[in-house]
Design brief:
With 366 residues, the protein is α/β, with parallel strands linked by helices. It has 10 helices and 10 strands.
Amino acid sequence: MIEDKMEEQFGVMVCGHGSRDEDAVSEFQAVAHGIKERLPQYETDWGFLEFATPVIRNGLDALREKGIRKVLAVPGMLFAAGHAKNDIPSVLNAYQMQNPGVSISYGRELGIDLKLIRAAGDRVETALQKAGDRIPREKTLLVVVGRGASDPDANSNVSKVTRMLWEGLGLGWAETAYSGVTFPLVEPGLEHATRLGYERIIVFPYFLFTGVLVKRIFHYTDKVAAKHPEIEFVKAPYLNDHPLVLDTFAERVEEIRNGENNMNCQLCKYREQSLGFENEVGLRQESHHHHVEGIGTGNSSVTVDIKKAASSVSVGNADSHEHAHELNHDHGHNHGHDHHHHPYPHADHPLGPNTLEENPGKSGPE
């Protein structure tokens, strides 16, 4: 009975990125419900950084109104790039400062996890079974498409997922591409794949949810497939609410409670000099999503210039740059720099973000 009362003091906050795509928002909420079902001992709520509602602070308010004073917050994201490392902690820090009676402990991203590799393998297997066995695996090439970030640590994780799926499934070859920000993008990545001599190409978006970016991936898949009728292109479903995804989220929450929460900082560009990103060590930890926080899905009036968005990453406007003690991931950022959008160093790469020419100049963010 005493243990039950202790459990009641804790609440879970699932922090999402947000999307203008209503299906993406619905899928995120379904995953949040799945997490809640796996952790019935905790009150659970959720919120988004931008575009969709509720925003993160609304979810925290809901927990506080239920008497929760100790919050276990997890990023609803696959990898730790700017959103998980800066934006979400900034929002959580600001809330904690404004509500001194609330303690927020921040968990790590899903990351590289064997359960997620198995879930991804299930999605690719589903696509293979649907396509049939006319073409053997050794003549099949897998293209794993990640979101793409201005953080090389996050981007390199997608390549590791690619290799583990390639080797685990026994496919002929595998390549990695990205939907934005970094390189190679989907279209040049697929064009490269067509020149490797394989009869079938499976395109797998390593994404949690649908949205503008997943639709962009499949758009370019169709575009390249139309130019290469001699190759069979197969679209694999993204992760979504796969049971193993939900299990991994629940595990991340329990890691916080058990004191096992360790975000990988060894390759963090904000902490150590990373090749090509040396001048980003010590950048102020801030969120840049305040201008689109809670703006709502389907708002077609909100657009961003592709080249501007692709070549910069904002580090926003919060009062505190360091994680609070409970957030457990202090980069030790300094104050010695201006507040500005930091440029992505390879924005002009010929296979990179500034080559997005569909609807030149405009693209709705996911």
